[in-house]
Write a structure and sequence with these properties.
Structural class: alpha/beta
Radius of gyration: 22 Å
Strand content: 15-25%
Helix content: 40-55%
Number of helices: 13
Strand order of the largest sheet: 2-1-3-4-5-6
């Protein structure tokens, strides 16, 4: 039965992809015949999110880093009002701003099957206005999100993921997938974090986890906590359930700076709406800990070597016992801890200042590039 569901899913995905591809091409031909093409000297990028989304670090940094790359006047923030039509708001804002690119995030719209319907209408709007979609997919296992991204990018644009394309290519009908994408940290925030780091040299003698709690992450962290306690090492778990209340930005960054080490897991979400993925993905904690110049304990995710070197820039583990042993062996070695934190901090400085996140997007977009 499970095998049959997968076959039906792939048939549906490929059918809707080719249907949208040809339908949007038909719209393109009609436009070509009856309408004069507009010439834009500068790219204009829209970044969308709901009210709650704009309160979290991820979206704030996307917006700020985009402004640093394109110029403030060429990046527009769209705050979606949940009480109004999502599709209509996009239509009006694109028309008003004359945008050329749109950063689409399927977490913003409906989280039911209706989200797929919304994506069909949004892709038509993009084609009508010649807007290039840049789709962000933070959780590849989410079936509905994959379908939405496939629809939006069916004729043009790219999909950004936290995994290398070679591991997920079979789930998408086209090859315009890039990843793993590092967190879009802005240079402005990096400067602020350097200042916070210099003001907090004395560390609290504990290991800390910050972030959302879900399975299998919760179980792994609790087991590591029990085993470390036997070795007189404290692990503090400061987490909330998915979608739960988060720490404000200042407290979040301070916690990352003030503790001796930061631990995280990178396993994929596993619930009724997801497919089982056995490979971990490049969550944003890798970048965040690097930016504050602290010691990170985390899994070695596929293609992490593009950014950071396991064992040199962070302490990596593949199972609970390895994590406990590595943390214990280095816990009192201040020299080694400083070497690791300094190494990863130097690399993130180079990554952020080179604007690698947006340069990678432009390289993938080719002649549709932002710059």
């Amino acid at each position: 039965m499970e095998y049959l569901k997968k076959i039906l899913y792939f048939i549906f995905v490929y059918f809707i992809f080719f249907f949208m591809k040809f339908f949007l091409f038909f719209i393109f031909i009609i436009k070509k015949i009856f309408f004069k093409k507009k010439i834009f000297l500068n790219s204009k990028l829209i970044i969308e999110s709901g009210k709650k989304g704009w309160e979290i670090i991820e979206y704030k940094e996307l917006l700020q880093s985009a402004k640093e790359y394109l110029g403030e006047e060429n990046v527009k923030k769209l705050e979606i009002d949940k009480s109004k039509s999502y599709v209509l708001q996009i239509f009006k804002f694109i028309k008003q701003t004359e945008a050329t690119h749109y950063l689409f995030d399927c977490r913003t719209g409906s989280q039911s099957f209706y989200g797929i319907i919304q994506s069909i209408f949004i892709s038509i709007i993009f084609e009508l206005f010649s807007v290039v979609p840049i789709c962000t997919l933070t959780d590849v296992p989410m079936r509905r999100w994959r379908i939405q991204n496939t629809i939006i990018s069916s004729r043009s644009g790219i999909i950004l993921t936290l995994m290398p394309p070679k591991l997920i290519k079979g789930y998408f009908p086209h090859n315009r997938i890039i990843g793993p994408m590092i967190f879009a940290l802005s240079e402005n925030t990096l400067k602020k974090l350097t200042k916070i780091k210099n003001e907090n040299k004395i560390k609290k003698n504990a290991l800390i986890f910050l972030g959302s709690l879900y399975e299998p992450r919760t179980t792994i962290l609790n087991q590591i906590k029990i085993k470390l306690k036997d070795r007189n090492i404290e692990l503090k778990i400061l987490g909330s359930s998915l979608g739960g209340k988060k720490l404000d930005d200042e407290k979040y960054w301070l916690n990352l700076v003030q503790y001796k080490m930061i631990i995280t897991t990178a396993d994929q979400l596993n619930d009724k709406e997801t497919d089982k993925f056995y490979h971990p993905h490049l969550i944003y904690r890798y970048t965040e800990v690097a930016a504050v110049g602290n010691v990170l304990v985390a899994q070695k995710v596929p293609s992490i070597e593009r950014y950071f070197e396991p064992g040199i820039d962070f302490i990596h583990f593949s199972n609970i016992e390895e994590a406990v042993n590595k943390i214990s062996s280095i816990w009192n070695d201040e020299k080694k801890l400083n070497e690791i934190s300094d190494s990863i901090n130097k690399k993130i400085n180079l990554i952020v200042k080179s604007k690698l996140y947006w340069v990678s997007i432009d390289k993938a977009l080719g002649y549709n590039a932002l710059k």
